[in-house]
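Consider a concrete sample entry:
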Amino acid sequence: MTSSGRRCVFFDRDGVVNRSPGEGYVLEPSAFHLNPGIAEALRVIHDQNALAVVVTSQKGVGKGLMTSGDLEKIHERMASLLKAEGAAFDAIYAHTGIGGNGDYPPKPDPGMIFAAAERFGIDLASSWIIGDADRDIQMGVAAGLGGTIRILGDKEVGVPAAHTLDGTAKIPNLLRLIL
């Protein structure tokens, strides 16, 4: 993309946007709980005329633990919780493991980021990714994003990020500095 494109902040979902389900999956809407600072972060991003896009791996669909419809209902809950706080994501891209044209390759493959960049005219070099796993950071690097932000949690750190935060509540202040 050219530098005339829009900036974007890409978000991993589980462990960043919502409380991590641990080793399992968020399988129903009632198990989805927003993390602190996410709605405020989205407002900061949109105030800067940037985009906010979720890039998430949801292999529970491909494993038969939930349906695509279940995943859609979980994302509807996410949207409803965010709307109540005056915030929203611009798009959601998910790897479900079911294959076909409606699926994207798994992280760290940057396919979800490239699909969003094509759809929205995103300037990758001035965009960021926020994740809690090495594969999120690797995905951002593979896509040529300008920056990476890691949220520390229960996952081991093997790949360094440009910024590391010990909680999602700190995301809005960092975004105010870098956007």
In short: The two ends are 18 Å apart (CA to CA). Residues 68-83 form the longest helix (16 residues). The first strand starts at residue 8 and ends at 11. The chain has one domain: 8-178.
